[in-house]
Amino acid sequence: MIDLVSYSAVFSGPLPGVDHLPRVHMVGPAPTRRMLAPISGYALAAAELLEFDPVRTGLVCVSGATGSTCEAFDGAWGRSEDGRLTSAGFGRSRYKRIHPFTLIRSLQNQVPAALSMRFGMKGPCLNVLESVTAFASLLPNIEAMLSRLPRVLLVLAAAGGRAEEGSKMKLLAAGSDFVEGAICFLFTREGHGERIGSIASGGAPWESGAREKAVAGCTAAPPLRAGVELLRCVAADDMGRRIPLHDFYRFQSGLDWRKR
Amino acid sequence: MESNGLTRAWEHKLEGKPVGIMRSAMVIPGLLEWEDLRAGKSAVRFLTGEAPVPTGAPTPLVVDPPQDWPFLLMPRALGLALAALERLDYEPGRPYGMVLGMPNLFSETAYLEWVLPHRDQPEFMEALLGFSHDFPLNFLAERAGCQGPRLRVDSACATGNDALIVAGQWIQAGVVDDVLVVAASAMLNPVGLALFHNLQALSPVRDLESSCPFDRRRRGFVMGEGAAAMWLSKSAGPDCAGYLCGYGQSMNAEKFIDLPKDLEAMKAACRGALGSLERVAYVSAHGTGTPANDPVETRLHRELFGALAEGVPLSSVKSMIGHCLGAAALIEAIVCLKALRDQMAPPTINLRQPDPACDLDYCALEARAIEGNFALSNAFAFGGQNSSILLARERP
Question: Which of A150, A197, B225, B276 is found 20 to 30 A from A22 (Cα to Cα)?
Fold first, then answer.
């Protein structure tokens, strides 16, 4: 069990049930910057709203789509004679039309890197890729960090609403438009200091099944969903709630929330 | 060895509760095995086709989608991961957890060739779902019959070590007794090569010895591809392959690609893994063969081990199999276990003209007899993430 000390969030658009919370801001779609994809822009903006000691705080990130990657290849692709990116001439010259920072902008661990460089975080770090259930699977790892450090910052971030990423989400979730953004949770060990509430795993036994399309109307990008549900518990002043989580592959787990 | 408050904070010793490593398997460039690495064989080849650089270390394995693969296209990295899992001798039926180390798959050629013309057409995205979201992780987990927690880790070159750390923490916490850890990378294609080459990270030299860590001729790393798998267990017996005894993680907080001038964060990760040990039998170096990495790693080794540094051998198997990116650290963890079992460190091949700034015992050209129970394996990733693990042959 871990205790929630504070939270913050930024989203590209409105999300019912959490808009009115302090330190939850609608910022609109984040742009692509020279070395930072939109996902890092959201993560940095959310972390800026939070007060924490970067030297004595561990970092855990759940990162989704960094943004669209297609446009980075358009220069090389557009000059292809047969409509294929890697056809004749790619290895000789067309590859040079891919911006040198494309790899950096596409790396999933750019989120912890950006946070580390902005705030001077030098402690342990773990970066995992998007899934709705990751939050639950990560609880023992957050607890392990908290056995050595007073605080752990969990950042959920995704910029999966545009171009090819948006098209994938529209296929998976019946035409919904997806809200991008980042949510930060600051955790401490159970029973230590002031806290809003506590979280434990509510997922055992872990279950899985055949793939189904996600329920329409889930408007937050997958890595954010568990965080959005947790924010809704805080916003609604829930004394206790089981938050079920399931991935697109119907792997299921859950979180147990208790207000302090 | 110095230890301050911050270092202690990052130290995660598992003494008393080391995690057993039951079995391991590799699918690596050249389809080399451990005996080949001991013998100093190289998997580096000249590349053909639209590769923007002349050399790479391919894994000569055709990966076809299995019959139950539900989508039109399958990532090669996932195919290599499946191949490694199939080679792993794990007991079916246990309620395994799974940790998959697999970076973003956007650079696979098949993915890009499909997505570029169809990016705004949701109806065409079905073909690509196997590259995205939780599908790779859950497909692999279902194939292995996993019933426990599951995560997919991506910390670039540190992925394999971080995946092992996640699994070790689960077992220590009592969440699950057995975890399958799999890591894979398949960026050895024209696009993957272009992405790194445009950052000037790859060797542009047309020479089969172009992967030459610690050599003055080094101009960058040679890219490999491959996969590895491990079975970690709480209930390890005398026939297990070894133990995960400690780990350390840190961030440089300085630059995205370049190594930091201040090595304190990197040292903290290494010391976190070493705990109270002052020396180990062998260090698996990150050893990429870039102009920047190797002298920094040499300095790090000296600062870590002090007067004992020249007596602690280190080597880089990247000299033989290139840099397998997201799979590299897990491959090198397996190499450490084999080295400890045989008491023989693999060589750093192609080290014929040592860089004066790199003046340690890198097991140049030939395998080296070693003595001891512990090996340290380091991974220093793009993004400034550092991850070190301590492995043992016998339970400490």
Answer: A150
